[in-house]
Write a structure and sequence with these properties.
The complex is a heterodimer of chains A (376) and B (350). Chain A is built from 16 helices and seven strands. Chain A has 376 residues and is of the alpha/beta class. Chain A is globular, with a radius of gyration of 22 Å. Chain B is of the alpha/beta class and 350 residues long. In chain B, 34% of the residues lie in helices and 19% in strands. A seven-stranded mixed sheet of chain B has the order 3-2-4-5-7-6-12, with helices on both faces. A five-stranded mixed sheet of chain B has the order 9-11-10-13-14, with helices on both faces. Classes of the chains: A alpha/beta (376), B alpha/beta (350). The interface between A and B is large, with 39 and 49 residues. Bound molecules: thiamine diphosphate. The site of thiamine diphosphate has 15 residues of chain A, from strand 2 and strand 4. Thiamine diphosphate binds next to strand 2 and strand 4 of chain A.
């Protein structure tokens, strides 16, 4: 009997997140050790892996800044920046294998491009020329979801189908802290646990849902603590520490791939800019608060660590910055070209075969446009 | 395999709508491994209406299974499974309990193909026990078709006969688009003599050279020929319309009955031709009439048949009220008498 209880306590302990967010590289670029709540250490990724991820980090930062500029020039309708959250963005994509799936939100531009999608295509949605700019099957990246938390269930469905088909597929399902209050978040975690499917739920807790702070979303000790209620492990990680993210997410993905079932990871990070360009973040947070996070910057931290380990010198930093610049300039070029939109696209994809009513409406629009262009 | 000769006696059996749906699901699962069925109580119990009876036993728990009790979960998981090559058929336990899934239906199921320029198609069938007439207490009956038909991207059908139940469910499963499949609850137990083998022959690479192989989804049918006026109905109202036509015949009036059966896509052609022939029409539906499918049909008929009409097109619908309690619903639902009254109002010269 008492033995049973002992087993259970251990099982529950292993589902609980570590007492502090996992950190492997601190704010000064010094390495740290950290373990899960059962005492098993998280391994520091090797230098080469960190260097490769660092390049993506720099590119991500550059694309975030470029997209902000494109909004100001009126080339993008809107942009939710992930400046400050780039380590989460890069790690979520890098830990996946080719056959795995990524389910991003509107803020996860850098995650999607880190998976190989051309930034111009990633930004099609936000540019307003079409809803989704890339073929989800080409990179196993779902369309960027806007209705909060709804995509988490789709992620569970893809994983469930993969399991039934015997595919070796893990699904990374992303959302923000605000989205964890939605019903679909809870249904997705419960379904994933009940069907024991390979999904890693990755919450980027950037402290705010537009203007609403985390304390108005939950009074749980952390978002990672929610996992145990569904019977899956939860872990929290320093979301500005690329090494810790790679290690924790990598562990969660490996575990899912080996039949261990779903996993919830909460990254503690911060949105350095406003929710989108349309938001005024000075109404709900102070500059001091924002400044505190500058010291925790994911890019500077990784650069300090790699330089200290002689993996990066000034020349390498410059080369990496130059290739990020190339990505940004290709993005600018892509956005400069006048987007071509075909009015008949309005009707083309609603059904696999347009209904007679849609055919009539398309003909009507065609005539209207013909009249306009003939100047009648 | 025995060769079927032209003169072979048809193997007719008497079947209920419920059993026809069960047969359709079983046959579809048999012929295509990617067809899977899930929902609440659809496993060993066979669903509260027993439509999935025996499927778990026959195909295993991986292909017909119970989910946690969460409609958005069911619908959202279906989206992902369809994205990954499956053809999910999901059961919403009752029409009025499908609303938690509504967000998934309108935001994702209906829009995915359009959002992705047709690159991601969702061949999902959403089966919903639908409408009234069974004495169900509150939230066990609703006429919810307008919510779905107003959502572009969804195909919405409501079969009224045993053979349509079989054929349209199989077509719905084969379609690459999502289908809201409304099953009129009160017709689950209505019976018909059908040749199930002939119905099956349309699918699974069966004969495709005859009339019957034209798809039923997208096509209305003339359920009864008539010359004086046209009754237009779908789903649970079709038998009521047929009964009204029968009663009118005894009074010497010949009423034609159209069974819409596919609300989206809507078959303007059949409806328009039928109404032009009779010059008079009444649309019948159980749902509240305001801003309803019935209103839409009336508008379409007036627009297209104005010069052939001898009278305004009338509607007989449910009242604009929340679905009534069991002991009150017979006052709400379109009745034979109400339909005949409307027909009498069609400005006859005699
Ligand atoms: C269902 C739903 N409700 C409201 C919104 C409007 N909205 C867009 S983003 C957002 C805040 C989301 O916050 P969070 O989940 O923390 O993600 P973050 O934007 O911080 O990355 C809201 C309320 C929405 N997109 N979907």
């Amino acid at each position: 009997m008492s033995n049973d209880i002992g087993e259970k306590t251990r099982a529950e302990a292993f589902m609980l997140p570590a007492e502090r967010p996992i950190q492997l590289i601190d704010e000064n670029g010094e390495s740290r050790t950290a373990a899960n709540s059962s005492g098993e250490p998280y391994a520091m990724p090797d230098d080469q892996a960190l260097l490769a991820a660092y390049e993506k980090l720099v590119a991500g930062r550059r694309v975030n800044d470029q997209a902000g500029a494109l909004v100001r020039q009126g080339k993008l309708a809107v942009y939710p920046s992930s400046h400050g959250q780039e380590a989460c963005q890069v790690a979520s994509a890098v830990v996946l294998a080719k056959q795995d799936w990524l389910f991003p939100t509107y803020r996860d531009t850098v995650a999607v491009m880190s998976r190989g999608v051309n930034p111009v295509e990633v930004l099609t949605l936000l540019r307003g020329t079409w809803h989704a700019g890339y073929n989800p099957y080409e990179f196993n990246v779902a369309t960027q979801a806007t209705p909060l938390a709804t995509q988490l269930l789709h992620a569970v469905g893809v994983a469930h189908a993969a399991k039934l088909k015997g595919e070796d597929t893990v699904v990374m399902a992303m959302c923000g802290d605000g989205a964890t209050s939605e019903g679909d978040f809870h249904e997705a975690l419960n379904f994933a646990a009940v069907f024991h499917v390979p999904v890693v739920f990755f919450v980027q807790n950037n402290e705010y849902a537009i203007s609403v702070p985390l304390k108005n979303q939950t009074v749980a000790p952390s978002l990672a603590h929610k996992a145990i209620g569904y019977g899956m492990p939860g872990e929290r990680v320093d979301g500005n520490d690329l090494a810790a993210l790679l290690s924790v997410l990598g562990h969660a993905v490996d575990r899912a791939r080996n039949g261990g079932g779903p996993f919830l990871v909460e990254a503690h990070t911060y949105r350095m800019q406003a929710h989108t360009n349309a938001d005024d973040s000075t109404r709900y947070r102070t500059d001091e608060e924002v400044q505190k996070w500058v010291a925790r910057d994911p890019v500077a931290r990784m650069q300090a660590y790699l330089s200290e380990r002689n993996m990066l010198d000034d020349a390498a930093v410059a080369t990496i910055a130059a290739s990020a610049e190339d990505i940004a300039s290709a993005l600018r070029d892509g956005m400069n070209s006048e987007p071509e939109v075909d009015p008949e696209d309005l009707f083309r994809y609603v059904y696999s075969k347009p209904t007679p009513q849609l055919q009539e409406q398309a003909a009507m629009l065609r005539e209207e446009i013909a009249r306009e262009t003939s100047g009648a | 395999m025995t060769a079927v000769t032209e003169n072979a006696a048809p193997t007719t059996t008497t079947l209920t709508v419920a059993k026809a749906l069960t047969a359709a699901l079983g046959d579809a699962m048999e012929s295509d491994k990617s067809v899977i069925m899930f929902g609440e109580d659809v496993g060993p119990l066979g669903g509260v209406f027993r439509i999935t009876d025996g499927l778990t036993k026959r195909f295993g728990e991986e292909r017909c299974f119970d989910t946690p009790l969460a409609e958005a979960g069911i619908m959202g998981m279906a989206v992902g499974m369809a994205m990954n090559g499956m053809r999910p058929v999901v059961e919403m336990q009752f029409d009025a309990f499908a609303y938690p899934a509504f967000e998934q239906v309108v935001s994702h199921v209906a829009k995915m193909s359009n959002r992705t320029k047709g690159q991601v198609r969702l061949p999902i069938v959403i089966r919903i026990p639908y409408a009234g007439g069974i004495g169900g207490v509150e939230h066990h009956c609703d006429s919810s078709e307008s919510y779905y038909v107003h959502t572009p991207g969804l195909t919405v059908v409501a079969p009224a006969t045993v053979s349509d139940a079989y054929t349209m469910l199989r077509e719905a499963i084969e379609l690459d688009d999502p289908v809201v499949f409304l099953e009129p609850k009160k017709l689950y137990w209505s019976k018909e003599k059908v040749d199930l083998d002939a119905l099956r022959a349309k699918f699974d690479g069966g004969s495709s050279d005859d009339d019957a192989s034209e798809p039923s989804i997208g096509r209305a049918v003339i359920a009864r020929e008539g010359t004086d006026a046209t009754l237009i109905a779908y789903g649970p109202s079709v038998p009521t319309a047929l009964a009204a036509a029968e009663a009118a015949a005894e009074e010497g009036r010949s009423l034609q009955v159209i069974d819409i059966r596919s609300i989206v896509p809507f078959d303007d052609e059949t409806v328009t031709n039928a109404v032009r022939k009779t010059g008079r029409a009444v649309v019948i539906a159980e749902a509240p009439g305001f801003a309803s499918v019935a209103s839409e049909i009336v508008a379409r008929v007036q627009e297209r048949c104005f010069h052939s009409l001898a009278a305004p097109v009338l509607r007989v619908t449910g009242f604009d009220i929340p679905y009534p309690a069991p002991k009150l619903e017979h006052w709400h639902l379109p009745s034979v008498d109400r339909i005949l009254d409307a027909v009498d109002d069609l400005q006859w010269e005699d």
